[in-house]
Amino acid sequence: MPKFFDSHCHIHEASNVADDGGVAGVWQKGGFTSTDQLINESIEAGVTHLLCVGCSLEDSRMAIELAQKNAHCFASIGIHPHEAKVHRTEAIKSEFASLATQDRVVAVGECGLDYFYDHSPKSAQIEMLEFQLDIAQQHGLPLVFHVREAFEDFWPIFDNFKHLRGVLHSFTSNRAVLDKALSRGLYVGLNGIMTFTKNSDQIDMARSVPLSKLLLETDAPFLTPTPYRGTICQPKHVVVTAEYLSDLRDEFLEEIAAATTQNAKELFRI
Q1: Residue 105's beta-bridge partner residues?
Q2: DSSP symbols for 157-189
Q3: Residue 68: phi, psi to the nearest 5?
């Protein structure tokens, strides 16, 4: 059986029963209140590595806690651009920065810029992005980027820092943006969106990502791939996206599994 790496999921929130909103609420509505079932079903499907991605200080702590308890999981600490305005205090920044040296932390993010929504002012988003780039640079960690309708501002900020490594999570842009990402050595994370998009530019882009720069992800519990639309996305569904890409790109499933797993291990130094 091919082995897969889900390079972006939020399963740590499934056990956050104290919160009935946000990501935790999505898991609860789907009947999930424990990470054990999610992880076990992933392993049965061949998804043996999972990166649990933090979006806030507390969320990052939960990702670390799960990763330290389960050998199949790893953690990325991040402050999502939506959360930027409430994480700007020096006390929170200091506490967040201290997480970078915790065991099983392999990346910083998801961090970036999101101009599609206005949950945080652009100035706050830029400040928190640069703060996290500094942390990643100091500790030699790769980054998990969330960039939505903001590449015009993102590239100059990225280029101000040296020797950054990372992945553009949930990448849905065109080949022109893809070329800019590849020229900077970034990896590209594709998920269930590819299975249901009708955008020809996105489909063309998915065909064009070099296998050496491709990562698979789910963003679970979001972005469930076809034919499971309407249900909660789980890490095991990364296989569905891989099967779709195998057909789209005319590549063997085993080839995609081996390459994307190795890419993730190299990027996150696992």
Answers
A1: 75
A2: HHHTSSS--EEETT----HHHHHHHHHTT-EEE
A3: -75, -15
Strand partners, 76: 53, 107
pLDDT per residue over 236-263, tens digit each? Answer: 999 999 999 999 999 999 999 999 999 9
What is the three-class DSSP state of 18?
coil
Handedness of CA 73, 81, 269, 240 (dihedral sign): positive
> Domains along the chain?
4-268 (3.20.20.140)
Q: How far is CA 263 from CA 148, 186, 215, in A?
A: 24, 11, 7
Q: Do residues 158 and 164 make contact, with C-beta atoms less than 8 angstroms apart?
A: yes
Residue 204 near residue 175, CB atoms below 8 Å: yes
Amino acid sitting at position 201: D
Read off the pLDDT of residues 72-126 as tens digits, 9 standing for 90 and up. Answer: 999 999 999 999 999 989 999 999 999 999 999 999 999 999 999 989 999 999 9
**Sign of the dihedral through C-alpha 21, 23, 28, 34:** negative
